[in-house]
């Protein structure tokens, strides 16, 4: 890198663009497909496929447990994997603000490459736009992923059925509270960090053992409560959740009490909801708990046929509370 | 739409997001895959595939001949098609600024849907982020496309060979000059408009008749000169171009003279470069000229083995000029 800040003409499509692409993106993302440097990538897959896209606008760019680059890989890898697919290929499109620190960009490109390697996906095609100062806040990244479906019928949001168990792979709310705390300069009695992680390998293990899984979904924006409402609506069932069974990191719980936030509505970026016939619940929990990203997996509730479309929380005192979808905006730009 | 401007909580992932997605995006983009509303789309394809991504940051959002929505569809459809693929599926990710006029957003979503229908592609998965005022300039769109490869070996940038003819499908520079003129409020003696168009159908016709095509590439950012330099570099050949054979709309030519711009470096968004064995040149030109997007197709030069990696322009007076890659930035945010 010859300059310490990104120049506007680096986005022209001309010589400066080609240097940036070669010296930075291809250097870190290098693989047999990307290195061909055509406008489109030639990939070999056999259908059916899962395809998913997400743009990441998180602020700040760096946070405990990750950065916008690792988040952009893991977020899309997870969305692809939730359809029961093995994530294989990613596109990666950067929108960069003129004047961005080149050292920040290089750190993020490295972390993007590391997250892709860990998730076992290749970044096969990309795009770089540099826009004038003020036209974007530092950096946004879009990733789009495709993967091969591993089981048919594949897990989908409309397949939850009465008699199914609802599992989560770990504690709720870590990512959302970490972003808020980092942004506002808050500190708690113990450090917290984002759960940002790719779940493709864990999902492959689950589906290999239990192809009958009905729904897999990652509770990102809007948190567990909003995601369960989506599933309840798509499947026309009720989700009945036991409040004291939902795993929440004690520091997140204390932080949420202090700030008036509900961990059930905070985003997660390395957790999954798994809905499957109750007879497989213990087996699925064992598989999750053996995985580095499923240590705190728990059976948090069940699918019933009362009140289709609703999510109900049973409190430790035996009360029932309707868990609605998130209405307003708890916190913008968490992903 | 209940409000005339976009609210921040529309990007929360909660109720307001779901309403926007249902009332706007799904309404206009509706198809059997998207309507499932899972985080990933389930698609049936048979490999090998072409995959390409592009983020569109064009300003202004509306311009003669198109808008950011039609541009986002056509730009990615073209990149996929240039690898000899039939574009089939698109993801579409919107980044929206709080306060955006809802009527502008709806116009753009409609135009996106129309461009997709015309190109014969389905928008199967999407993402919407709403960021606080000032974090993005109005609206950016990322599209990622996949398509099935129609011929093998497929056209790629490294396949240009001595003896090949270099064709273009029409006039050069219309898009770039239109964006500049719109932005700066310039008017010329006759109206000009962007050439923004999807070339998938034209490419399918070309490849069906002439599977031996070596290279297809769309001269977008950096224009014809920069794109030919890429190909010359990838293939290790020289591109020898006859200046008086390159079709340029007379109004674009006059506007460029006036502004000190070179149409060979201006972006196009509905044109292609086709490089193929010279014996097929006339056949390819006939096919192009019968298509609505190829009326002004021309044979502009040839591939030779002198000076590998170079693009040389032969002027009408017999002189030779080296056409280098674009060095700086002629005009930011043209796509």
TrEMBL record, chains A, B:
* SUPFAM superfamilies registered for this protein in UniProt: PurM C-terminal domain-like, PurM N-terminal domain-like
Specify the PurM-like C-terminal domain's residue ranges.
Answer: 162-312
According to its UniProt entry, the protein's GO biological process terms are: protein maturation
Please list which residues make up the signal peptide: none
Kindly give the InterPro entries that the UniProt entry links to this protein: HypE (IPR011854), PurM-like_C_dom (IPR010918), PurM-like_C_sf (IPR036676), PurM-like_N (IPR016188), PurM-like_N_sf (IPR036921)
Q: Which residues form the PurM-like N-terminal domain?
A: 38-149
Which family is this protein grouped under? Belongs to the HypE family.
Q: Which NCBIfam families match?
A: hypE
Kindly provide the name given to this protein in its UniProt entry: Hydrogenase expression/formation protein HypE
- Taxonomy-wise, where does this protein's organism fall, top ranks first? Bacteria, Pseudomonadati, Thermodesulfobacteriota, Desulfovibrionia, Desulfovibrionales
């Amino acid at each position: 890198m010859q300059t310490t800040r990104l120049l506007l003409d680096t986005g022209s499509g001309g010589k400066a663009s080609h240097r940036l692409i070669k010296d930075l993106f291809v250097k870190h993302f290098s693989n047999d497909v990307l290195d061909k440097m055509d406008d489109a990538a030639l990939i070999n897959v056999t259908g059916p496929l899962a395809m998913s896209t997400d743009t990441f606008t998180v602020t700040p760019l760096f946070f405990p447990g990750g950065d916008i680059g690792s988040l952009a890989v893991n977020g899309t890898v997870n969305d692809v994997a939730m359809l029961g697919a093995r994530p294989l290929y990613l596109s990666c499109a950067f929108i960069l603000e003129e004047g961005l620190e080149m050292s920040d960009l290089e750190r993020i490109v490295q972390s993007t490459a590391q997250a892709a390697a860990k998730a076992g996906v290749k970044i096969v095609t990309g795009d770089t736009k540099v826009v004038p100062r003020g036209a974007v806040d530092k950096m946004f990244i879009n990733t789009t992923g495709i993967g091969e479906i591993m089981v048919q019928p594949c897990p989908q949001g409309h397949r939850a059925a009465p008699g199914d168990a609802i599992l989560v792979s770990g504690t709720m709310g870590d990512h959302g509270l970490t972003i808020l705390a980092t942004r506002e300069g808050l500190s708690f009695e113990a450090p917290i960090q984002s759960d940002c992680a790719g779940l493709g390998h864990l999902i492959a293990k689950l589906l290999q053992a239990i192809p009958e899984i009905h729904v897999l979904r990652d509770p990102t924006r809007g948190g567990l409560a909003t995601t369960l409402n989506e599933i309840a609506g798509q499947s026309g069932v009720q989700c009945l959740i036991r409040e004291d069974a939902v795993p929440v990191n004690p520091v997140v719980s204390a932080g949420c009490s202090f700030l008036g936030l509900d961990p059930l509505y905070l985003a997660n970026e390395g957790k999954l909801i798994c809905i499957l016939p109750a007879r497989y619940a213990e087996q699925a929990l064992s598989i999750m708990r053996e995985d580095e990203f499923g240590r705190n997996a728990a059976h948090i509730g069940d699918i019933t046929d009362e009140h289709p479309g609703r999510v109900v929380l049973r409190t430790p005192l035996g009360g029932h509370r309707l868990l609605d979808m998130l209405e307003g905006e708890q916190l913008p730009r968490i992903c």
